[in-house]
Amino acid sequence: MIKLLMVDDEPLVLVGLQSMLPWEEHGVEICGTPRNGVQALEIIEQKRPDIVIADIKMPVLDGLELMVKCREKYGRIPLFIILTSVEEYQHVRDAMRGQAVDYLVKLELTPDMLLQSIMKAKDILHSLGRKQSDSPMEQQGVQFLYDSFFKGLFTNQFTNEEQFETQRAALDIDLSFDAFIVCCCRLGGQNVEDAGADHLLSLYSSTARMTQEVVGQYLTCYMTNMDLHRFAVTFCLNRQEAEDYQQLLLDVLEGAVQLVKNYFNVDLDCAIGTKVLSALSLGDSYYAAQKSFENPKRVRPIHFYQNVAKKNVVVEQVKEYISRNLGKRLTLKEISEVFGYSPKYISLIFAKHAGVSFVEYVNAERVARARELLLMSDARVYEIAEQLGFESAFYFSKVFKKIEGVSPRDYMKKPAGPDMH
Q: Which fold has domain 141-304?
């Protein structure tokens, strides 16, 4: 990946530049966005970018002075693309004298013009012998690896804490916080609906980058790409932030929603999940955020998941599914495929939130339905066993007797209670 540094004293200019192109698709990684030349020099020393886009007029050290100092210390690389608000001949001449790749006027800048300058710089880098890294991480892109890691957390794919910690450490992701919340963001509006594939990709990339830039100024967060209409933001909160997180997230997200609307004419729908205390529980927060989209009473564009009963949302959904499908094959493997969670996770949360194992719950529900059928229908025992998904009439009788204390046949012979008359 080619490393790119952007330097400008105007925050919105930096946001606009980052949002203007899908950088990773062009093999470019943005390694910093300092606000003046002195800060830029420090980052250049640490990260050695290949290309620098620098504004001419900045406090402390302007873009041309920054370019001169870099030429004296590092030689030809990093290459410079000079950015300014006003086109002046003297500035152009000074920029060209410093071997700037290009000179761009902000008010006239378009994505095509910016991409053309970047491609010109990449051609020069190639001619100078600077090649892209062959390391696996840079080939795949850091964001791709981040996406895979957080998607694993969202779908509870980590089977143990050691596996989770190994991947977290390899990516150097800081999750040493007191609470976590997932916010699912969905692009909408006429501009999105009318967009072709290329334009939609550009809108998505620009919207996601601007959202991350804005909310990242206030809270630690990680963005995860889901598809061309959705991305997720994982907020990492300290104890104080977690206490009043709803108002905090509203304040932060409202600014992002408004900027996205103003810049790209995109409606951003933000669904915020439940607060969890461990990164390994992010799946619960993500699931709640997804369910929030289904609430017809939600208030756009920012809404929180309402869970009045305070029950585990996954367990409740699985219970509903079991109740509707008692006659089907109900194993942990089958259920995990339906809901997208690992069998181990389904087993864990059932034991924790339902108070019984998954198998015990399924059998109890089937026996409860069997009691009704035995007393209210003319069906034979083997027919009821088959109707309720038992492997055989023998196994049905065994389970029934374990729970009720009598066999199905003896149960039918019992005198009806007062409520049956």
A: Alpha-Beta Plaits (3.30.70)
